[in-house]
UniProtKB/TrEMBL annotation:
Keyword terms, alphabetized: Membrane, Transmembrane, Transmembrane helix
Domain of life: Bacteria
Coiled coil start-end: none
A Pfam family annotated for this UniProt entry: DUF445
The protein, known as: DUF445 domain-containing protein
InterPro entries reported for this sequence: DUF445
Region (Disordered): 1-27
Protein's organism: Streptomyces ferrugineus
Transmembrane regions listed in the UniProt entry: 55-74
Cellular-component GO terms for this entry: plasma membrane
Amino acid sequence: MERTNPDETGTHGVEQHARRDVADNRGVPASAVRAMTTFTAADEEKRRGVRRMKLTATGLLLFVALVYVLAKVASNEGAGTWANYVAAAAEAGMVGALADWFAVTALFRHPLGIPIPHTAIIPNKKDQLGVSLGEFVGENFLSEDVVRQRLRAVGIGSRLGAWLAEPEHADRVTAELSAALRGALTVMRDSDVQAVVGEAITRRADAQEIAPGIGKMLDKIVADGGHKRAVDLIVARAQHWLILHDDEIMDAVQGGAPGWTPRFVDRRVGERVYKELLRFVTEMRDMPSHPARAALDRFLTDFAADLQSDTDTRARVERLKGEVLGRGEVQDLIASAWSAVRSMIVSAAEDERSELRLRVRASLLSLGSRMAVEPRLQAKVDSWVEGAAVYVVTTYRKEITSLITDTVASWDAEHTTRKIEAHIGRDLQFIRINGTVVGSLAGLLIYTVSRGLGA
């Protein structure tokens, strides 16, 4: 009665497999089912302890039964009134022992195999007990007030601050964050991210008119003289190019002359044009106050004003912007920016001495130090944690409690009964022992009072 054959393949085995299938369908982990259908070495030791206590309680019952028989025999043979007292005490002890045996046995099975109503409570009411346990946990442990009170008593903000303020803990968190960042960047597909980045940049550029901003920037550059270095560079390069390509320039001038002019005239005109052009560029390079430079400044100033206020100029800039953004080369450039950024971030996350990790570590240490001493920051962190916990328990209370009810429902009734009995059966046997002792004392007291009253 105490052991189950592990090799049995009858109806009970089919029922057990069916219960496991139900457990799988309900999402109950298989480990939770195995925990109640497998007896560990500790469970077997407890079952041996229960059997020893059963033998003790049963032995005490047999002892008082023997005492009762001997007392009755002694009373019938004229041993005196003491035999009646002993018989009364032993008789009441047997009644108490039998009553408590029935009560303890009825928790786990039908006494003597007789299907008496309201017996075998645990196997018959297992699912109802699971539902009641789930409701009890939900009402008393997963309520908003209980969660807030418990978390507030813990003081998560101050504890977390003191923990983060330790350098080794900050190093650990930094390493974990770096690993998480590397993992996230690794699993993300470049094509998807590139498409999102390209779309975001293009959408933002389309939504934002750039001409006024360019006009303001150009106006500021001209006012500060920031364009002069660019002009110097362009003029110097132009002068150098003219020197290197003098023949090409003169040939181009001669090629544009009318066909009826003599060639020597075209040659002289080409040379004259080249020399004047070279002189103009050289003077513009060497004279910061050259009229052409002033004319360029006025042009840039007027163009900056048109970018900010002229409707036609702004419209042309927007069309140009759209044409540039629509080119495949520009889209490829935008998309390739993600690859460069990802590689940079991954490299920084892997390097323990990178600026990224050093800054994260310093920020964590600073945050921990502040949280450890600033009540306002602690209260804010506690409020965030409480709010998150309350949201979880109030939103998913049914799912949390269903884990209890479904797990209990997935357990096999017989194995569950045996395991519960192994854990609490030893203490329950003391009820039988106490019932025998208390019954004997009560019987002795009642018989004594009855004799004293002359009953």
